[in-house]
Every structure is written in C-alpha cells, then in structure tokens.
C-alpha cells in the first residue's frame, strides 16, 4: 500500500458544494484508513474546506489557509534567498 494518498484541490472544493463529490471524498478517506494510508487534502483555502476535511477525519492538509508556500531556506530558518539551493 501507499503511505499517503493526495487529493487534488478540485475535489476538496467540489466536496463542499456537491453531495456526490463529498461521497467520493468519504470513500477515499475510508479506503486510505483500510489500506493503512493517510489522506492528504491539497489546496485548503477556506474555513469550510478545512471544516469538511476535519469532519471527515482527513489526516493531513495543505493550502493557503494553513500556511503560505515558502522557499526551502525559509522553512529551515535560512535567508530565503531565491538564488540559493537546498542544503544537504
């Protein structure tokens, strides 16, 4: 099995608007649990999307609501210079 299953932002958005998309997200969450994987919801940008993912017990999330993207150096406490390369 897989460690992580990533769900595209489009499904996250549509699941807040459409019962059939919500059912698909629920089924993917159930599959992830049964297969020993963790679901990752991409593109969480609204409190409604976060509430839905939390309600469905989606394990992990990514998106502007949670944190803005950062350069590798910024994430590790470095200068964040766009010309820098990731450290080994």
- In round numbers, the mean pLDDT is 87
Q: What ranges have pLDDT less than 50 throughout 5 or more consecutive residues?
A: 80-88
Helical stretch tally: 4
SSE string, helix = H, strand = E?
EHHEHEH
Query: Kindly, what is the distance between the CA atoms of the first and last residues, rounded to a whole number of angstroms?
Result: 29 Å
Q: What does the overall shape look like? A: flat
Query: Helical proportion?
Result: 40-55%
Largest sheet, spatial ordering of strands? 1-2-3
* Alpha carbon gyration radius: 16 Å
Q: Could you give the topology of this structure?
A:
Blueprint: E1 4-7, H1 9-15, H2 19-35, E2 38-41, H3 47-55, E3 60-61, H4 72-75
Parallel strand pairs: 1-2, 2-3
Helix pairs in contact: 1-2
Describe the structure using short key phrases.
88 residues, alpha/beta, 4 helices, 3 strands, 42% helix, flat
Q: How would you describe this structure to a colleague?
A:
The structure is a single chain. This protein has 88 residues and is an alpha/beta fold. It has 4 helices and 3 strands; from the N terminus they run βααβαβα. The protein has a 3-stranded parallel β-sheet with strand order 1-2-3. The radius of gyration is 16 Å and the shape is flat. Residues 80-88 have low confidence and may be disordered.
State the gist of this model.
The protein is of the alpha/beta class. It has 4 helices and 3 strands; from the N terminus they run βααβαβα.
């Amino acid at each position: 099995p897989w460690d992580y299953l990533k769900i595209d932002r489009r499904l996250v958005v549509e699941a807040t608007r459409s019962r059939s998309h919500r059912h698909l997200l629920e089924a993917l969450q159930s599959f992830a649990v049964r297969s020993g994987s963790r679901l990752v919801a991409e593109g969480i940008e609204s409190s409604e999307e976060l509430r839905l993912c939390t309600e469905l017990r989606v394990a992990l999330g990514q998106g502007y609501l949670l944190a803005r993207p950062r350069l590798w150096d910024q994430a590790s406490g470095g200068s964040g210079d766009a010309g820098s390369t990731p450290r080994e």
